[in-house]
Amino acid sequence: MEEIGGCEPGLVEYSTIIGRLCKDKLVTEAFKLFSEMIGKGFSPNVVTYTSLIQGVCCLGEWKEAIRLLNEMVGKNIWPNVQTFTILVDALCKEGKANKAQAVVQLIIQRGVVPDVVTYSAVMDGYCLCGQVDEAKKMFDVMVSRGCAPNVFAYNILINGYCKIKNIDEAMNRFKEMSRKGLLPDTITYTTLIGGLCQTRRPQDALLLLDEMQTYGQIPNLFTYSTLLDGLCNNQYLDEALALFEKIETAGLVPNIVVYNSLIQQILLSEDCLLKCKATPLE
Predict the structure, then answer these.
(1) Average pLDDT of 158-175?
(2) N or C, which end of the chain is more exposed by having fewer CB within 10 Å?
(3) What residue spans do the PPR repeats cover (predicted)?
(4) Closest Cα partner for 250 from 275, 224, 269?
């Protein structure tokens, strides 16, 4: 690393550039700079190690991340909540929610207080594996430890319940949000609309769309396409066509998913009509 303005770079400069390299996924270059820094007698700190852990996690190398975590602890450099959260998120994305939960327990043992982002990462990991009950347990642990869930945390749990078609429990969490003064966002409503359609409740999904707009949440194209696909799959062609007009009125440009859903349902309806006409009356 070259001198900056005639001055030899120090720990702060090295850590800053290592962080930037890791964010750009230039992890090999970051490790070269890390070795150079140590060679010049600078001891890495929690910021340096956290950047490297984030870098290897972005590449899916969670084992290397754990090695770095053990290395820093061995040097009496204690990870902070950001370090742990990055590792927890990486483990969850690899489908290793149990390992992630073990890391959370380690956080607590070390006296580091996990935040809502950390807990949410573990919840998301369990939901990705279809273990929504475990995600709910983690949610309850978060609440019991005085960490207030936010809209993002609720959305993870609601999405988890919708994926396993437990729409009633998803709606319970939705109502709980409102009781706690949290305002559901577009993601919340879109997820529930999809869940209602999957459980053959398209009329309720339409009502939820109206409620969403009443409370000031603007549906986006994904919201509309989710509902339109659900209406088509449940043979609600008239409602789907009416919704298509709403999409255009809202100034949104329908994508191929919207057109495919409509075309498929129209063809099915016409095929059914032709079969009915061809069937002689007894």
Answers:
(1) 97
(2) C
(3) 10-44, 45-79, 80-114, 115-149, 150-184, 185-219, 220-254
(4) 224
Q: 143: how many CB neighbours lie within 10 A of its CB?
A: 13
- Torsion sign over Cα 125, 130, 172, 200: positive
d(CA 43, CA 190): 48
| Both tokens assigned to 281 | 């009356």
Ordered by where they begin, the domains of the chain are 1-79 (1.25.40.10), 90-184 (1.25.40.10)
Tell me the C-alpha distance between 216 and 146, whole Å: 30
Nearest to 245 by CA among 234, 226, 258: 258
Bin 191: left if φ > 0, else alpha if -120 < ψ < 50, else beta. Answer: alpha
CB 128 within 8 A of CB 161: no
Composition of the chain by helix, strand, coil, percent to 5: 75, 0, 25
Distance CA 224, CA 189 (A): 11
Is 0.90 surpassed by the pTM of this model? no
Q: Is 4 helix (H, G, I), strand (E, B) or coil?
A: strand
Phi/psi of residue 233, each to 5°? -65, -25
Spatial distance between the Cα atoms of 263 and 196, rounded to a whole number of angstroms: 22
Q: Which amino acid is at 199?
A: T
How deeply is 183 buried, as exposed, middle or buried, from its count of CB atoms within 10 A (0-12, 13-18, 19+)?
Answer: exposed
pLDDT value at position 281? 39
Identity of the amino acid at 277 = K
